[in-house]
Amino acid sequence: MNDWWPMSGGSFAFSSGHWFPSLDVSDHVKDHLFYVILYLTGVVFIGTGAVLFWILWRYDGATNADPVVFSHGSHALEVIWSILPAVVLLFIAIYQMDAWAGARMRRPTMADGAIKPPLCRVTGRQFEWRIQYPGEDGRLDTPDDLHVLNDLHVPVDEEIVIEIESMDVLHSFFLPNMRVKQDVVPGMRQYVWFHPVKEGVSDIVCAELCGWGHYKMRGRITVDNAAEFDRWYSAAYAEQETSQFSLPEEEE
Ligand SMILES: [Cu+2]
User: Who is most buried in 18, 55, 103, 200, counting CB within 10 A?
Assistant: First the structure.
């Protein structure tokens, strides 16, 4: 069980050489963008910290008899600290465009060019993730749908599209390993997509404070090969058919 909890196994630790949970996807993943921004902000953070400490030391009143001399206005400095951040922000704005389009705008298509339908719908609800697969007929909200709780399964090596919705308040559907994070807004139907290339189990977490039980709003995503996915699906479906348990009706 431990291998899917990101705080264990040192995948967040500096010592392992990774800043992010292990990478389970290929495209749509632009970790280098995170690193570019991390290095940029890191350099600025260390630089301003160093200047602050140098000034504290240099103008320490106890050891410095001379009064501090204030100067007003430096045209050159102001131009530099206006232009430099503007250039950096412009660079980031242009550099990230393709990553953003791939993650948020270019919805995956099928061989014939049609928009790929979602594999399933994930509904956020205080405090769980309800997952609904369309079943044989390929349509959601029909009697043959498969309902599971907090246990998302997806096949490996294909574009996975998921429809996300909220049943109550604002949640955020976060798959750290897939680098997917999307606010789940009540009344909105949204889609996220990713392309898992490695089998395994990782987290689903809620990344938006949504109530007292926010901390436990956690599920898992299992990436299976096609055969295993089919086996899991049939087993879950058979279990649903035989069990007395059903999800409570949605409140009006
Ligand atoms: Cu939540």
Answer: 103
* pLDDT at residue 234, as a whole number: 93
| Domain covering 120-241 in this structure, CATH number | 2.60.40.420
**Ligand 1: centre distance to CA 68 (Å):** 53
- Name 172's bridge partners: 183
**Spatial distance between the Cα atoms of 57 and 65, rounded to a whole number of angstroms:** 13
**Whole-number pLDDT of residue 5:** 39
All residues with CB under 5 Å from ion ligand 1: 171, 206, 210, 217
Residue-range domain boundaries for the chain: 31-95, 120-241
Exposure b/e, 194-224, CB count within 10 A at least 16 = b: bbbeeeebbbbbbbbebeeebeebbbbbbbb
